[in-house]
Every structure is written in C-alpha cells, then in structure tokens.
Amino acid sequence: MRRSRTTDGGVAAVEFALVLPLLVVLLFVIVNGGLVYLDQLHLQAAARDGARVASVDPNQGCSTALASLSGNDVGMTSCELVQDCSQGSAEVRLTSIQSISIPVIGERTVNLDASSTFVCPP
Using one digit for the tens of pLDDT, what is the confidence trace for 6-29? Predict the structure, then answer.
C-alpha cells in the first residue's frame, strides 16, 4: 500500500517571507506614531508651564516653556506669546517641526502645535 502525501512544508515559510516586511513597516509606523504623540504631550505641558509663568511675568513665558522642553528632543521649536495680561489672560503657543524616518516609506515631516491660556491674577 502506498500513502498519498502532499508536500506543503515550504508554503508557510514563503507566506511568512511575504508578510514579514509589511509587519515590520507597520511596527515602525506604530512606534513612530507613539513617539510623535509623546512629543505632542511634552509640547502641551511646556505650553502650559509657559502660560502659567506668563500670567505673572510675560517676559519669562516663552523662556520657561522652551526651558521645560530642554530635556526632550521635539524638533525645531518656536514660541510665541499670543496674548499678555492686558486682556486678562496670557496665552503661549508652541510650534515644533520634526522629521521622522520610517523604513521603506522614507522621511516625513510632522508639524506639532500646542497652546495654553492662563488667567492673570488681579
């Protein structure tokens, strides 16, 4: 008696080899997306710190915001005091431009914005 045997031992390896690059790219996209989100959170916290200080001393708002970002690499960051206490509140706006690199997809530029407003003391 002869047994009929199908040979498909290499099919799984070929399928894995075809799907693996897509999974690796997806992994890099997810990790880079999480890092960009983390940078956005750092930017928002720095804007909040800057607005809090600007509500007391408008000349120190942006310097405080940029100093609180000194330990975080969020790209090229600029700060603007949008509103001072003459209108009752202080607003600080931070913008950041950063470049991310994803294999196969390439270099991408991400623009991040954050602003915060604090009421000035009477």
Answer: 667 788 888 889 999 989 989 988
